[in-house]
Amino acid sequence: MSNSVSTKVCQDVVFVNDVRELKGIKGLSNKRLCIIKTDFKDLDKIGKICKLYPKMEVWLTCKEVSKENILAADSYGIKNIVEYPLNPELTDILIKRNFAENSCEAHIEHDKNKYKGIKDLKVMIVDDNPLNTGLLEETLKDLGLKLLIFQKSKEAAKIIEQEKIDLFLLDIMMPEMSGFELAELIHKSRLNANTPIIFISALSDSEYKVKSYNLGSCAYIEKPFDVNVVKSQICSLLKSHNDSENRNKSKDSYLAMVIHDMKGPVQAELSALKLMTGMYGENLNDDQKEILGDVINSTKYLQNLVGNILEKYKGDNGKVVITKSLNSFKKLVSECCDEVKYIAPEKNLRINVSYKSKIDNIYFDYDEIKRVMHNLLTNGIKYSFKNEEIKVNVVNDSQNLIFSVSNIGISLDMNKIGNVFEKFTSYCEEQKSVNAGLGLYISKQIIDAHGGEISFESTPDGKTTVTFTLPANLNA
User: Fold this and answer.
1) What's the pTM?
2) Domain total of the chain
């Protein structure tokens, strides 16, 4: 095994096929690293060597690296296990990296054009072994990436809610939080739910590979790995993901621009229709009034849709900014209910408001919460059966104001509908209606920004209730 690495490195490193071979080696106390081939039945003897030569680091090498083997080695303080037979190039880099050897490094020739387009992209590396993070840093250092490196997974978890990352490279077995648990947090995060993940692990068991792909990982790389292959994999994935992100941003920007340009004409059309109704309403027959009323309602729906799409665009791009001020919540409830009365009579619906909260004036963004209430009320009216009642309830607990809207209509199976607050989630087919599926998505963004919560419930008897809370403190 001594030919596995360069001669200079071997001056500080000893390789043995059996721990018993160490008895015949002179100057062992001067060695910086000892690599021992093992079947893990001799860990007690290896542990004694570790205690006898505390300044000498010990690595193990074996044909199969499993979870059980890693745990067993870890119990003896042995942090690094490499696959046997040793990969000469990889072993050389590992050792040099570990002992800060900067000389005699082989320069890997590569085509610089391969790495265009990924400069300054953010890659997060999470591995509790500094040797492994160091090797990945060494592998990626010439790509112009911004590397965020963590040995503690809980520290990495804090960042995923604060910064947009372009790629995650995760170890699996970590003491504070496993790579699998961290991946689940990433998928639930607002900023990085769609960010690609690669697992890099010494675990070769198929069950771990299957679980990683079930969690949506793009690749599973086994340690030790080929530096050139891993670099190409990461580069290719980053380029592909970045190109896709740029295309999506261009589409979203174009959509936002078009929708924004629609705001003026839609508002002008609605104002003109209202003016016509005021000027000529008394001279219209019943059929003409009905047609004009339908056109007005359709224009109001279009106006609401335009507003929702623009809010969705702002939310997706992290631009949901709220401005809190002290307002009367009771006044807002009354105002919103008055504004939707024009569509309630079409189905002969009654709007019943019950304000039982002892709290009224709190800090919130008046316009944004009005948007939420308007969305919930118009949904309740739209999906309600005729001749029913829309119930609006306001109560409070010790910490929150609680607002809810209930209607009676077609029941939705809570076990099948999934997350109703995802964008473009709509149940038009079940409800026999036209809906873009943005109202609840935007409502959640606004309530989240206020520090509140929003929930949805549909019962078998056809009662659907949407509830949101707002912190009932007097602080902005």
Assistant:
1) 0.44
2) 4
